[in-house]
Write a structure and sequence with these properties.
Number of strands: 7
Strand content: 15-25%
CATH topology: Rossmann fold
Order of helices and strands: EHEEEHEEHEHHH
Length: about 200
């Protein structure tokens, strides 16, 4: 079994793998498609943790947001978005974690900019990063923090839209969105998905 735990330690029941999706390299860093990795940068700053190269073809930072809180393994695959699955599956094996202990933070076209939705399971919704993770791990049993970037205006192609930087107007609000998304990750790990959803989902 790929995901059977092979070790036992006090950390096992309080350890989460948090993956921020995006494309590698400075040329992509500000793109909407990389908002998941921007959220990880916010979390790493809170934990005073530095990202380091890891044998799973990812960069990883480890730490806790508060004393005695859950341990978070923050990971950014070194691959392009549409082949994120290999590093994610390798990270789960390395840390002997089941996919239910995985939180994937990613951009979401189907949500308005500056909104969040938290969910467990479900399909990939056309998101190539999620599609590859599901294919590589053989399951959709993981939690997603969906960071709304909105649909492109007019007839602009979605593939082009996600590979562009946020607008000047969006950048004024972006820090608050990243803060909220990082808070949501911490809440899922500390309090569970249902409690986090009640806190971060806007009333219908």
């Amino acid at each position: 079994m790929w995901f059977r735990r092979t070790r036992s330690s006090p950390l096992d029941d309080n350890l989460w793998l948090v993956v921020g999706l995006g494309n590698p390299g400075p040329g992509y860093a500000g793109h909407r498609h990389n908002v998941g990795q921007m959220v990880l940068a916010e979390l790493a700053d809170r934990m005073s943790a530095n990202f380091k190269s890891h044998k799973t073809n990812a960069t990883v930072a480890e730490g806790r947001s508060f004393p005695d809180g859950p341990k978070l393994v923050l990971a950014k695959p070194n691959t392009f978005m549409n082949v994120s699955g290999g590093p994610v599956a390798a990270l789960l094996r390395f840390y002997s974690l089941e996919p239910s202990r995985l939180i994937v933070v990613h951009d979401e076209l189907d949500l308005p900019f500056d909104t969040l939705k938290l969910k467990a399971g479900g399909g990939h919704g056309g998101h190539n990063g999620l599609r590859d993770i599901i294919a590589a791990t053989g399951t959709n049993d993981f939690t997603r923090v969906r960071v709304g970037i909105g649909r492109p205006p007019g007839r602009q192609d979605a593939a082009d839209y996600v590979l562009r930087d946020f607008t000047a107007a969006e950048r004024t609000t972006l820090p608050n969105l990243l803060t909220d998304a990082a808070d949501a990750v911490e809440a899922i790990a500390a309090d569970g998905l249902t409690t986090a959803q009640q806190k971060f989902h806007s009333p219908a």
